[in-house]
Amino acid sequence: MQADPSRVVGVDVARGLALLGMFAVHIFPTFTRDGGPTTATLLAGGRSAATFVLVAGIGLAFVAGGRTVVRGADRVGVSAGLVVRAALIGSLGLLLGVFSEDNRIYGILPYYGLFFLLAVPLIGLSARALAVVAAALAVLGPVLLVATADVDLPGREWNGDPTFGTLFDDPGTLLTTLVVTGEYPAVVYLAYLCAGMAIGRLDLGSRRLAWSILGVGAGLAVTAEVVSAVVLRQRSPLTPAAIWQPELSSSWWYLALPAPHSHSIVDVVHVLGSAMVVVGAALLVTRVAVAAWLLQPLAAAGSMALTLYSTHLVVLASGVLDDDPLARYPDLLADPALADQPLRGYLTGSIDAVLRLPGPRFAVVDYKTNWLGPYGEPLTSAHYTPERLAEAMADAHYPLQALLYGVALHRFLRWRLPDYSPERHLGGTLYLFVRGMCGPATPASGVFGWAPRPALTIALSDLLHGAAR
Q1: I need a surface site. Which of 13, 22, 246, 377 has the fewest CB within 10 A?
Q2: Structural Rg of the chain based on CA atoms
Q3: Pairwise pLDDT comparison (468 vs 49), residue with the higher score
């Protein structure tokens, strides 16, 4: 069944907004310097991925007959097409998984492939039946995650994206990750897909229905937040850090946590409602010819979401958007001349100081007396510019030292702070080259700051812990 043009534009605009939201979450930091969530986190954290899947469900309903449920041979044909699509999207996701160490993103495409496969038996359901399934999954999915939180399931401690190597070496762990333990577990995200399929079964050309979608979505989103606030006020053992950096817990209080990507009942209902608001608003706005024309670029992006999403994973992995002054330091370590150099005793020293910055962050401080100018000539601030400091850092292999200091601070804060969150509390390292520090008039002279991603510090800590065992 062919959808009318206004419906397609509205759905594509919603998909385009979800795509931009995912880009923002992946590109911009999660927290500000004072420890609060950034605008990208507040607006798109969790909501963009849910909207992406919800709109995918609408698209599946279009393919599966729209308002008319497919039967007989038509259903067989649609099912076969979905299986092929699932295989292609899943394969693309596994292929792009090789870039996860470089772009530091949990890609959604391997999960998407499984979602499409699991949708095959659902294409014969009516809108009402799909809504019931979505509601059941919105409750039972989070309950299953909490009930198994303390179970040592395969993939629980797995970092990174699955690849074809994972598929061939450990298919059981791959399946468990995609269904339960991964970043986008099917037991939860199928709720969004089914809700989208239910919406796609309706007359999306109706203005009244568009307002209903928007209103119901807003009601769900607001109700979820209110319920969370009321429930968590009742002696909840969850710490404030759990609001923005949740860790799956076996405590049933967790089901009321409103944190993005916590996959609690409150989170699922809230982001589902938010996604419905986006879809309803897009359907209403694109009924106005001028607005539909102005939103054509966004609709175009939504119509080619798979291409753009895949491209952004590759671009982020390339490092072209990375403003890290030491981003190329790993290339220096790849020098074959370092292969046979012993590491024992190579890095010595101790942390000079740890400063508590404004807000919740802590930073390691290390003083350096390196002479960076030509010997025999007076030193000036020109010898201690950020560019010269970056060169000196790499030449002396101070990034390795900074990473080890970061691990020490990470472990200390984890021990001392009951609400510790690496994203909120790790403030990086300040290298103070005292010979080049000229006072407040030239604050950049002689001061080099580096804040590696918290995920890198955690990974190194885990690696060293494994080596110690």
Answers
A1: 377
A2: 25
A3: 49
